[in-house]
TrEMBL record:
Domain of life of the organism encoding this protein: Eukaryota
InterPro entries reported for this sequence: RAG1, RAG1_RNase_H, RAG1_ZnC2
GO MF: double-stranded DNA endonuclease activity; histone binding; protein homodimerization activity; sequence-specific DNA binding; ubiquitin protein ligase activity; zinc ion binding
GO annotations of cellular component type: DNA recombinase complex; endodeoxyribonuclease complex; nucleus
A biological process from GO: T cell differentiation in thymus
Name of the protein in question: Recombination activating protein 1
Family annotation (Pfam families): RAG1_RNase_H (PF26100), RAG1_ZnC2 (PF26101)
Gene name of the encoded protein: RAG1
Length: 218
């Protein structure tokens, strides 16, 4: 339908479709509070979900990609598809890691490969881009292995402390990466320089657990 709306022939695109997916993950609080009826449930719940944001193609011989699908209501529950609903507190890093581990592995496999489907009698090739824009700060910190939101290190993208950020809101650059956080976790775990807790903490700049999911902001 998207191809037709754009006046493109069904066989125009042989190089493949690019699908941008928004990931969302958030705690749902105490489950017993949410539903009211029935016995009180002590557990908390976390929902991991995704939304297909756009699909684009680059027609043969064309430089610019053409968007053939754009989600009109990206924040609607109707377009946001739950992938995993788990009884776990969003601050429980170990349990989150264990439950979402297979999802992360699947996503990594999708990023490094192409999905080929037969649509309308033609084999179509799809590649996927994931954007972690549906995470609040608390969730980003949890998944990237950072200290909780009360941390001295205020930013989940750079190494600024709250004091530095209050004096200078301009000269910040994005210095954090998933790989760097993994390296810092190893330093935190092994303490190769035999430093005190405060010195070690200053060296790793707020990394406190092993990060298990790279959340890419847009």
């Amino acid at each position: 339908e998207g191809l037709r709306e754009r006046g493109l022939d069904d066989s125009t695109c042989t190089s493949g479709f690019t699908v941008v997916i928004k990931e969302s993950c958030d705690g749902m609080g105490d489950v017993s509070e949410k539903h009211g009826s029935g016995p009180a449930v002590p557990e908390k719940a976390v929902r991991f979900s995704f939304t297909i944001m756009s699909i684009s193609i680059r027609a043969d011989g064309e430089e610019d990609a053409v968007t053939i699908f754009q989600e009109q209501k990206p924040n609607s529950e109707l377009s946001c598809r739950p992938l995993c609903l788990m009884f776990v507190d969003e601050s429980d890093h170990e349990t989150l890691t264990a439950i979402l581990g297979p999802v992360v592995a699947e996503r990594k496999a999708m990023l490094e490969s192409r999905l080929i489907l037969s649509v309308g009698g033609l084999l179509r090739s799809f590649r996927f881009l994931f954007r972690g824009t549906g995470y609040d700060e608390k969730m980003v910190r949890e998944m990237e292995g950072l200290e909780a939101s009360g941390s001295t290190y205020v930013c989940t993208l750079c190494d600024s402390t709250r004091a530095e950020a209050s004096h200078n809101m301009v000269l910040h650059s994005i210095t954090r990466s998933h790989g760097k956080n993994l390296e810092r976790y190893e330093i935190w775990r092994t303490n190769p320089f035999s430093e005190s807790a405060d010195e070690l903490r200053d060296r790793v700049k707020g990394v406190s657990a092993k990060p298990f999911m790279e959340t890419q902001p847009t």
